[in-house]
Structure formats: C-alpha cells, structure tokens
Write a structure and sequence with these properties.
By secondary structure, the chain is α/β, with parallel strands linked by helices. Helices cover about 35% and strands about 20% of the residues.
C-alpha cells in the first residue's frame, strides 16, 4: 500500500488535473486527545469522494455534507468555496465532541484549502516519487503555494501568515531472503505504507514468492543494498540465516543512513555474526552498534507470522522514535527466561515485568 500522504496528494492532483473542484484539509492544531495527529491530511472531491483521514469518519462526513452535494442533493447549493484558505474547529463543546466521535475533551482545528493548484501538486508528487522530501508552504492570505526541497523531517509549522508542512517520500524496506517469514513481514510492511523490495539470488526461494506488490530481485544482496541507496526513510532486514548472503549485505547497509538495519537469528548466531565481522571485515563494536539482532520485540513468538509481527513492531517503533522498554528486548528477555529455567524458584522476580 502506498504511503498515505503521497496517496492523498496524488489523488488530489488527479482530481484537479481533470478539472474537478476539491479541497485539502490539514490538521493544524489539537487539544486533548485527537484521532489523528497534527499534519494529517485528507482530500475531498466535489462529488463527495474522500481520500485520507482527519478523524474516525464523522468529521469527514460533516465536510462532505457542508461542501458537496453528495448527501444534500443537487438543489442544496452546497459546494466547495472559492478563495483564501479557511479554518474550521471541531469538538469545542462536549456535545460536538460526542457528535463528531472525538475522544473526551478532544478538539482539533483544520485548515481547508480550496481548489489547490494542479501544477504545484504535480511538482510535489513528482519530487516525492523521486525520493525527495519537500516543504510545502501555504500563504494564508490567498492560498498561494511554494515548494522547496527538505533535508530532514519536520513538524508542521503554523504562523499568522503561513502554514509549512513537510512531506517525505514513502518509507522503503529491503528484505534479504524470500522465505516464509519474509512473506509475512513484506505483507505487514506493505499495509503499513512501505515500498518493499525482496532480494534472493536463490531461484528455489524466488519461484515460490506469493506476495503481490513487493518487488523481487535476484542479484547478490550486497550489490542490491548498494543500488538500493537506503536513506533515513529506509530499513534493511536480513532473514536468510545464511552468512554468505546476510553478512556482506548488512555491512553495506551499515554504511547508509537507513533508520533500521537488523538480522534474524538466535542470540548465539547474532554474537557469532558480530565476531565474524570483527575478525574478517575489520569492524569494531562501535561500527556495529547500529546492527540490531536478535531483531523484534519479545512477545514469546515462535511461528513465522508471530515473529513477523514482532519484527514489524520493532521497525515501526524505531521509525516513530519510540524507545521500547528494556524488557521487550528479545535478547534480554530470553536471558532472563534462561535464568528462570535454571532456577524455577526465581520465577516471579526473574521473568520480564511485562510477562510476570
């Protein structure tokens, strides 16, 4: 599945290019709890079609009712306004919060841009498709838009005169190995908005691949990693258990800005991998500090789908800047469970707290 922001902008571009009227809604402020974070966007077409989300659905329904004829009929006169952008606030009162499905005490404010320029949207989408992050600045007085390349992610910025929202290209995942675990992980990554590439030079594995939407390549993994050009919106995951395939690819990935580089394997296998890299590839503990393994969070998983859930959860946590509790670390949890196995009398104090 395509990155949600890119999908919204692409669809809005297509509507505007075809001559349809449309609006772009951006969450610019929230108070208390809110269904969607600041910076979230949705687009609404004159025929009532919606892409993206700013709430659980009730606010979208209200915007459709107010600004299109989809619910109110052709004679209602409801249509998308023209002119400068406008602000609208939902959930100011408890009754409104309940009506629009907002959490208790939740309030959000939207900026509505009417008929965004098709040419500007095309430029923005093309840049995102090319892997370039972009900063989109909207002048509140008249809705004019300027675009500039962005070098890093940034929070939405709203001033008295303009709105600045930074959009990045879709997140990417490179998976080394086309086995069963890779199929589950690729499926989860795709519906989480990642573009997925799977690399496996072994024809017997590639021939059985069954996940639509993932690109499958056959070159040697280290060459694929080099050509992949991983950036801060990319992750590289090695799942073959074969040092001939995993090791060089991981070393190549550690040279990049990938936000996540990791490999499947037991604590012993991961220790042996690091030792090989230090002895034969002139690595150090410091140079391997970013290499994750055993990957995933500890949920007691043993089957391929559960292991994939564990790995995907860790990748998303790292992507979102969340520091996981130490007792969710696979190696730490299993070390503590090993202590329990050796001394059952220590069960309560030695078990990870989240599983005690």
């Amino acid at each position: 599945m395509e990155n949600l922001d890119v999908m919204v902008l692409r669809t809005l571009r297509d509507w505007r290019t075809s001559g349809k009227r449309a609006l772009l809604a951006t969450v610019v402020r929230t108070w208390g709890s809110s269904p969607r974070p600041v910076g979230s966007i949705m687009a609404l077409c004159e025929d009532g079609l919606v892409v993206g989300s700013v709430s659980g659905g009730c606010i979208e329904d209200d915007l459709i009712y107010r600004h299109t004829q989809a619910y109110s009929g052709k004679d209602s006169g409801n249509q998308i306004p023209m002119g400068a952008p406008g602000f609208v606030k939902y959930g100011v009162t408890a009754d409104e919060a309940h009506r629009f499905g907002l959490p208790c005490g939740g309030t959000l404010e939207l900026l509505l841009e009417y008929d965004p320029d098709a040419a500007s949207l095309s430029t923005l989408v093309n840049a995102l498709d090319a892997g370039q992050s972009m900063q989109r600045t909207v002048r509140l007085a008249d809705g004019s838009v300027s675009l500039t390349p962005a070098t890093a992610p940034a929070e939405l910025d709203l001033s008295q005169t303009e709105l600045v929202n930074t959009f990045g290209p879709e997140y990417r995942m490179l998976v080394i190995g086309a086995g069963q675990l890779s199929e589950y992980l690729a499926t989860m990554a795709l519906f989480s908005g990642f573009a997925v590439t799977v690399c496996d030079p072994r024809e017997e594995y590639r021939s059985g691949w069954s996940v639509a939407g993932a690109k499958v390549v056959s070159e040697m993994p280290d060459d694929v990693v080099a050509a992949f050009r991983a950036d801060r919106r990319s992750c590289v995951v090695a799942l073959t258990h074969d040092p001939k395939l995993d090791d060089l690819a991981l070393l190549e990935a550690l040279k990049t800005d990938a936000f996540y580089v990791g490999a499947i394997g037991s604590r012993r296998n991961n220790g042996a991998r690091k030792q090989r890299m230090i002895e034969h590839f002139e690595q150090t503990e410091a140079s391997l500090a970013r290499l994750r393994g055993p990957i995933g969070i500890y949920i007691g998983s043993k089957t391929p789908p559960e292991i994939a859930v564990s790995v995907m959860a860790e990748i998303l946590a790292v992507k979102n800047g969340v520091t996981l509790p130490r007792d969710m670390d696979v190696a730490r949890a299993k070390d503590e469970l090993a202590i329990v196995a050796n001394d059952p009398g220590e069960l309560v104090c030695a078990m990870p707290r989240s599983y005690a």
